[in-house]
Design brief:
Strand content: 35-45%
CATH superfamily of the largest domain: P-loop containing nucleotide triphosphate hydrolases
CATH class of the largest domain: Alpha Beta
Bound molecules: adenosine-5'-triphosphate, magnesium ion
Helix content: 10-25%
Number of helices: 8
Strand order of the largest sheet: 6-7-8-3-9-10
Shape: globular
CATH topology of the largest domain: Rossmann fold
Number of strands: 20
CATH architecture of the largest domain: 3-Layer(aba) Sandwich
Distance between the termini: 36 Å
Number of domains: 2
Order of helices and strands: EEEHEEEHHHEHEHEEHHEEEEEEEEEE
Structural class: alpha+beta
Radius of gyration: 25 Å
Length: about 350
């Protein structure tokens, strides 16, 4: 375990009566790092933050802050002594206090001069220094969110917990506030644990991402690792749409219409799930010598901004027609019924043992 980690969870379990919300979770976050907890609704993300904050009594395992025990079942450091900042989805600012007073609210213990300097510094961090004298109702939603972030950073916490902090904002505002938040967190040097159910947001914000499913940690790593080397089909699908094929393992390989893929580690004769990201299907003109069985036909093509999505079908094996999505950079809009060739980028295709039926 990393000794310099600001926060470490070891074997943490939590149940609400019969509902197991967190199941044997271990992770740690060093100073200056943003870790995102990513997973579907109900997988236990908020519960993890509540345990770290000390708002939920620890049932099993250990929570360490800077290597010292914060909770181990017999002993609990109270929330106010954990030096942890929070930013939850419903970050209510006090409506009758100015921006500066809101940010200074948790700094009552400091001398007036020091408090003023801290407030100015925190507002600087979120680029809201010009708004110190305003009241919350005089701010946009995104500005209010940034003030709430400044309020959580002002006491200089060693760890900041953020629970879906951008979900109340519209798409354009969200991008901007996310950007400010990431810069402010990085500049503050605090460790951050942020909850989201949006994989793209996790990839934008996180140095590392912890993917959770039903209370368990499924995979923990850098965004590029999770995107390019998902540990199972659940993780692969969480990070974006995939084309699903099935195949049978033969000689440590599975055959697809676009060639063979390695099925190392799977048993001979086993049924495999084959997941192919749309961007792995690279389309081009029909070329001489192409096996006609390998050609695909365009059903529809749509430009979606930075990429184009192409709906394809392929008659393979002969009797059944396979529908696929391909994604090409920029504008790529072949007319309907155009026949194209496909090259498969093997780094964006994944083979897993087929999941047993539920
Ligand atoms: N106070 C509670 N009492 C009983 N069950 C609870 C309580 N809080 C959470 N749960 C249950 O524990 C599980 C995990 O809940 P949690 O809020 O941690 O999930 P989450 O990953 O944050 O979900 P979401 O993305 O919807 O916020 C869920 O099944 C939930 O219904
Ligand atoms: Mg939650």
């Amino acid at each position: 375990m990393n000794e310099t980690a600001v926060i470490t969870l070891e074997g943490v379990c939590h149940a609400y009566d019969a509902v197991v919300a967190v199941d044997d979770l271990a992770l740690s976050v060093p100073a200056g790092e943003v870790v995102c907890l990513l997973g579907p609704s109900g997988c236990g993300k908020t519960t993890v933050l509540r345990i770290v904050a000390g708002l939920e009594r620890l049932q099993k395992g250990r929570v360490l802050l800077n290597g010292a025990v914060a909770a181990d079942g017999s002993h609990e450091v109270p929330p106010e002594r954990r030096n942890v900042g929070f930013l939850f989805q419903d970050y209510a600012l006090f409506p009758h206090l100015t921006v500066a007073e809101n940010v200074g609210f948790g700094l009552q213990a400091l001398a007036a001069g020091e408090r003023k300097a801290r407030v100015a510094e925190a507002l600087e961090l979120v680029v809201m220094a010009d708004y110190a004298a305003r009241y919350p109702h005089e701010l946009s939603g995104g500005q209010q969110q940034r003030v709430a972030l400044a309020r959580s950073l002002a006491p200089k916490p060693q760890l900041v917990l953020l629970d879906e902090p951008f979900s109340g904002l519209d798409a354009r505002m969200r991008d901007q506030v996310r950007d400010h938040t990431l810069h402010a967190l990085k500049q503050s040097g605090a460790a951050a644990l942020m909850v989201t159910h949006d994989a793209e947001e996790a990839m934008f914000m996180g140095d590392r991402i912890a993917v959770m499913r039903q209370g368990r940690l499924v995979q923990f790593g850098a965004p590029v690792e999770l995107y390019c080397r998902p540990s199972d089909a659940f993780v692969a699908e969480f990070f974006g749409e995939v084309n699903h094929l099935t195949g049978t393992v033969h000689d440590k390989k599975v055959t697809t219409p676009f060639g063979e893929l390695s099925a190392e580690g799977l048993q001979e004769g086993a049924v495999a799930d084959i997941l192919i990201r749309p961007e792995a299907l690279q389309l081009g003109p029909i070329h001489e010598g192409l096996d006609p069985k390998r050609a695909v036909r365009v059903i529809a093509a749509r430009m979606l901004g930075r990429t184009s999505l192409i709906h394809l079908c392929i008659g393979w094996p002969d009797e059944s027609v396979l529908h696929l999505h391909a994604r090409m950079p920029g504008r790529f809009l072949p007319p309907e019924n155009t026949m194209l060739s496909v090259e498969l980028d093997h780094t964006q295709a994944f083979v897993f043992p087929a999941e047993p039926p539920h």
